[in-house]
Amino acid sequence: MSEQNSFLKAVRGLRPDKTPVWFMRQAGRSLPEYRRLRADKDMLTACTTPDLAAEITLQPVRRYGVDAAIFFSDIVTPLYLAGLEVEIVPGKGPVFADPILEPQDVDRLTSHQGFDPDCITEAAQIACGELGETPLIAFAAAPFTLASYLIGKTRSKNHLEARAFMHSYPDAWNRLARWCADMSAAFLAAQIAGGARTAQVFDSWVGDLSRADYQTYCWEHSRVVIDSAHAHGVPVIHFGVGAASLLDLMRDAGAECIGVDWRLPLGEAVKIIEHGPGDRFAVQGNIDPAILFASSQVRRDHVDQVLAEGKKAAAHIVNLGHGVPPNADPAVLQEIVDQVHESR
């Protein structure tokens, strides 16, 4: 695969002739072929069965002609493979049988060291064998987001339990966050070994943190994950939800491309991310998922505005500002792909 591929150029901050586009959660419940394939299979079975994970990874590439595939899995898959008892409950997400409630629980959990990566690497190999010139993106969670699923019996608004644990038990928190970083790094490594050419680190809940808390408790652990991908020779996209106040700190964690959600115009994000003249970063985003349900003309105008804002960055990868909603119409996503590919 040539480094002149439009996606691979853009992710490294080089503007290609054609703006690349793909969608977070492009493989998932919005696709009828996905729903048929998953009808009698639970999520973690699908994630750890190589031919199933590969097929789901490929589905949106076949349907839409997007410029990148993202490996189909779940952020807790490495923890499941490491032996933690977890269930992905529809409408709730991952639920662990033995969550962390006290500092000593961290030692119990972190005694699970490593996991067998073979099913992940095999799935990536199968997918890459079919993708041809379309690059595969490896994915993993940032440590704060992964740790947030492990702490507390219930998922509270703004992840209060995780934040309280962080402040109350900083030493235990740092051990947990470093363990999560190592798990996510190993998860990326397994996908890269199978042929992934880029990595994306998702920090879905980072927007609940203050700048001070992110710097004190999370930044160095996110850096571990990003550095691990760089050690394998691939560039990194770093994406957080509600993270407008943290974009410069996320940049400093080392990624080549910063994902931006729909709340902040890309031009404003570029001003935050770049230090000054000559400091040029790629950005990814940031179509508002709500626009998928608007009229065709409203949608086209919004996408044109996102494309115009993206020209203020060194390079731009078009995406939504969050994942594809389960009830999104695939025909609408196809229209967006076509519009982006026809743009100049």
From TrEMBL:
Q: Which GO terms describe its biological process?
A: protoporphyrinogen IX biosynthetic process
Q: What is this protein called?
A: Uroporphyrinogen decarboxylase
Q: Which HAMAP family match?
A: URO_D
Q: Where in the cell is it found?
A: Cytoplasm
Superkingdom field: Bacteria
Q: What does it catalyze? A: uroporphyrinogen III + 4 H(+) = coproporphyrinogen III + 4 CO2
Gene that codes for this? hemE
GO CC, alphabetical? cytosol
| Naturally occurring in which organism (per UniProt) | Varibaculum cambriense
A Pfam family that the UniProt record links to this protein: URO-D
Function of the protein: Catalyzes the decarboxylation of four acetate groups of uroporphyrinogen-III to yield coproporphyrinogen-III.
